[in-house]
């Protein structure tokens, strides 16, 4: 019996809509008329509105800035509509209150409101409870003409199917403007930005076909280009993606990377044919989500346990070098990785190649003692599961690493973990020294350790570390960063953007995630969970 039901935001975004069976006309026309004639003019005191042969009943939700509208043929007396509108409103709020509570219009873009089943159930209940009385006499040709005439009498026709804006009784002096009902609005889309409270005394018409450049801001303004078009163009999407970009930056994705991501989403969607507005919103979200998952999924599998076994079979220790700036957690996470390797039955030699920072060697010795007390030598054939190789401070780190690797080979250690001093990416002498350490020792794996707290800086660090490794290598195929240890993940809440920046810039996987300060706080990355956190409004 209903022609349509629509739920949209005051920013003009259609969250969900229902179109009655056999109804071919889009709800856009009547809803636009409602917005223009009622909502924009602060005439929302009544809860119903007539547009041509349709009756519209609506309800505003000012807390969540939503509008609920139901449309039906006005010749039908649907006694259940008021209650039904209330029911749908309450039910929708209840079901999506978590999503709706987030600030900003982006929530409407990133959330999909699959409300169909609940709606149909409510409708079924409402229709079952009431007796619907079609008033047969109202269906005569004469009467229906008359009913249309009532509306027409309020709209001054000016050639073709153009009408004139309905004038507010309160605003008799208000300017009259010609509406452009060109019949072009066939898509079920809203063409209004609702600026309740800002339209006093001035009957401004905000149809997309009349809107002048820059006239209307807000969420609708930015999406205006999308709603009318069937084929998405780069220019149309730009403002939407601009919002997406800001969202990603707020999640701590480096600004550069956020820009590049949005550019690639635009490319992906350009030229796509969109059926309805809601499809556009979900398409943008989906494309971004897909890109993010794709970035986080390793192009290359890093399976350390398997590789250690392989090296062991060749009677070689597997060598991992840790590098990164100061204080990011290199030594701590090296210790956690030692623990993990020992738990997996391997023996570990820690090479203390941070010969620079006071206390660095002692910090590693403390870890070595603790690890051996957790895994006493009795459980490992009488030999300590982990040993420390150190030569004190001030010596050449590359030389110590080399000695440690030789020692590990002779003593049949399975793994050598090389700790290095933290260094700023701009400190050329120290970067050269790191490049040399890696070049002469050819570790099996070079891990870059970076904090999850880092924002724009992530890009600079990784680019310059890789650049230094490339520049100072004597090999034709220099060793670059093979993987990432993302630390302090426990301190960032849902601002997980660094994971994206780091993998995007290096194309290398996040091998470990540090989630705290105990040996157990080491995880692998869950790409889906990270992407969900990123998309959350
Ligand atoms: N909350 C938290 N703190 C960490 C994590 N990893 C390291 N830290 C802390 O960060 C600080 C610096 O760690 P350290 O290993 O000395 O950094 P390095 O200079 O890179 O070797 C220490 O206080 C660590 O306990 C982590 O995953 N989560
Ligand atoms: Mg350290």
TrEMBL record:
The Gene Ontology biological process terms listed for this entry are:
intracellular protein transport; SRP-dependent cotranslational protein targeting to membrane
Task: Spell out the GO cellular component terms annotated for this protein, sorted alphabetically and separated by semicolons.
Answer: signal recognition particle receptor complex
| Main localization (coarse) | endoplasmic reticulum
Q: Return the InterPro entries for the record.
A: AAA+_ATPase (IPR003593), Longin-like_dom_sf (IPR011012), P-loop_NTPase (IPR027417), Sig_recog_particle_rcpt_asu_N (IPR007222), Signal_recog_particl_SRP54_hlx (IPR013822), SRP/SRP_N (IPR036225), SRP54_GTPase_dom (IPR000897), SRP54_N_sf (IPR042101)
Task: Tell me any Pfam family this protein matches.
Answer: SRP54
Q: Locate the SRP54-type proteins GTP-binding domain: which residues?
A: 509-522
Judging by the UniProt lineage, the source's domain of life is: Eukaryota
Q: Where in the cell is it found?
A: Endoplasmic reticulum membrane
Report the SMART domains cross-referenced here: AAA, SRP54, SRP54_N
Membrane topology is: Peripheral membrane protein
Sorted keywords for this record are: Endoplasmic reticulum, GTP-binding, Membrane, Nucleotide-binding, Receptor
Which GO molecular function annotations are given, in alphabetical order? Answer: GTP binding; GTPase activity; signal recognition particle binding
Q: Which family does it belong to?
A: Belongs to the GTP-binding SRP family.
- What is the name of this protein? SRP54-type proteins GTP-binding domain-containing protein
| Species for this entry | Electrophorus electricus (Electric eel)
- Corresponding gene? SRPRA
């Amino acid at each position: 019996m209903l022609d349509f039901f629509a739920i949209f935001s005051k920013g003009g975004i259609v969250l969900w809509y229902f179109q009655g069976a056999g109804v071919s006309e889009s709800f856009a026309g009547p809803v636009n008329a409602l917005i223009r004639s009622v909502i924009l003019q602060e005439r929302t005191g009544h809860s119903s509105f007539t547009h041509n042969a349709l009756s519209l009943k609506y309800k505003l939700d000012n807390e969540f800035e939503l509008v609920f509208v139901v449309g039906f043929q006005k010749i039908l007396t649907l006694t259940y509509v008021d209650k039904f509108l209330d029911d749908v409103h309450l039910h929708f709020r209840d079901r999506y209150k978590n999503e709706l509570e987030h600030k900003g219009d982006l929530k409407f873009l990133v959330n999909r409101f699959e409300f169909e089943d609940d709606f149909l159930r409510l409708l079924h209940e409402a229709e079952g409870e009431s007796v619907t009385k079609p008033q047969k006499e109202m269906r005569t040709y004469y009467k229906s003409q008359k009913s249309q005439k009532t509306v027409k009498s309020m709209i001054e026709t000016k050639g073709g199917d153009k009408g004139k804006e309905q004038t507010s009784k309160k605003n008799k002096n208000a300017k009259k403007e010609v509406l452009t009902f060109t019949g072009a609005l066939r898509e079920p889309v809203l063409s209004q930005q609702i600026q309740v409270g800002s339209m006093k005394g001035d009957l401004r018409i905000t149809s997309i076909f009349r809107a002048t450049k820059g006239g209307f801001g807000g969420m609708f303004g930015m999406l205006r280009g999308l709603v009318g078009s069937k084929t998405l163009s780069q220019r149309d999407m730009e403002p939407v993606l601009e919002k997406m970009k800001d969202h990603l930056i707020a999640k701590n994705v480096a600004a550069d990377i956020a820009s590049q991501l949005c550019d690639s989403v635009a490319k992906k969607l350009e030229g796509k044919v969109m059926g309805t507005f809601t499809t556009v919103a979900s398409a943008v979200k989906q494309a971004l989500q897909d890109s993010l998952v794709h970035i986080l999924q390793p192009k290359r599998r890093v399976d350390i346990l398997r590789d250690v076994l392989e090296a062991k079979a060749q009677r070689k220790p597997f060598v991992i070098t840790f590098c990164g700036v100061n204080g990011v957690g290199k030594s701590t996470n090296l210790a956690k990785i030692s623990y993990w390797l020992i738990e997996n039955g391997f023996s570990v030699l820690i090479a203390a190649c941070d010969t620079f920072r006071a206390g660095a060697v002692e910090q590693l010795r403390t870890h070595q003692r603790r690890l051996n007390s957790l895994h006493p030598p009795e459980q490992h054939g009488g030999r300590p599961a982990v040993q420390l190789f150190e030569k004190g401070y001030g010596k050449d780190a590359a030389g110590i690493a080399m000695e440690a690797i030789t020692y590990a080979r002779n003593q049949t250690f399975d793994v050598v973990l090389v700790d290095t001093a933290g260094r700023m990416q701009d400190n050329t002498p120290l970067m050269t020294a790191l490049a040399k350490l890696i070049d002469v020792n050819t570790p099996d794996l070079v891990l870059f350790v970076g904090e999850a707290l880092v924002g724009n800086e992530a890009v600079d660090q990784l680019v310059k570390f890789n650049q230094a490794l490339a520049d100072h290598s004597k090999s034709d195929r220099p060793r670059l960063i093979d993987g990432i240890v993302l630390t302090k993940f426990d301190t960032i809440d849902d601002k997980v953007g660094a994971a994206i920046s780091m993998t995007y810039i290096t194309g290398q996987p996040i091998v470990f995630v540090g989630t705290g300060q105990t040996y157990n706080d080491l995880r692998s990355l869950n790409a889906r969970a990270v992407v969900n956190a990123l998309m959350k409004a």
